[in-house]
Design goal:
Layout: H1 11-17, H2 22-27, H3 40-47, H4 51-60, H5 74-107, H6 113-148, H7 161-184, H8 196-234
Helix pairs in contact: 3-4, 5-6, 5-8, 6-7, 7-8
Length: 237
Amino acid sequence: MTSTIEPSARLADIINEHPDLARELERRSLDYCCGGQRSLADACATAGLDPDQTASELSSIGTAPPEPWTTYRADQLADHLESTHHAYLHDELPRLTALADKVADVHGARHPELLNVQRSFAELRADLEPHLAKEEQILFPMIRELVASAEAPASHCGSIENPIAVMRTEHDRAGELLEQLRAITGSYAVPDDGCASYAALYAGLEHLESDTHLHVHKENNLLFPAAVELETSHQPA
C-alpha cells in the first residue's frame, strides 16, 4: 500500500496514518512526537532537508494501514499505553541500567564516553519512572473518569490541562536526554572492541528511543487533545 504524502502534512498525522514511517522520520531527525504539530515542510526546513524530495521519498515507501490505537477512545488509549509502553519501560529500564553499569565498568577505561552514557541514562530513568507513576495514578484515572461521567469530575488538580502541561514538559526533557544519548554514542555505533553486552546495551537504548518517541506521540498528539476535548464537552453551556 502506498499513498501520497504532501509537504503540508503534519508529522503527527503522517505517523497516525502510517506508523511504520516513524523510523524514516527519526532517521531524518524529524521530531514527530513533541514536534508533531509541525508540517513536514517546516520540520524539513529546520533539519536542512528538501521538503518535496522528503515527501516523495516517504510516499515511495510501502506503508501499512493505520494501527487500531489511532481510533481508540481516550480511556482505551490510556489502557493501551499502560499495557504496552509503560509495561515495556517498567521491564526495560532496570535491565538497561544493569547493562550500562556493567559495560561502563568493563570498557569505561578505554571508552570514557560510557560514563556519560551511564549518567545520562540514570537521569532519564530517574525522570521517567515518576513520570509513569503520575500518569498511572493521577492523569489516566482522571481521563477514565471523564469518559465514564456525563459531567467533568472534580479533581484536586483542577482542569485536566494542568497535569497534561506537566507531562508535556517532562516529555520534552526526556526527548533532550534521548538526544544526548544518541550524540554521546555516535548514533549507537558499537566500537570494534565492543563485546556482546556493549552491543546489547546500544541496541536496547536505540529501541528505547524509538519506543519512547512513539509513546510520546500517542500521548501528546492523540490522548492529551482528546482528554481536553472531553473535559470541554462536559462544561455547562
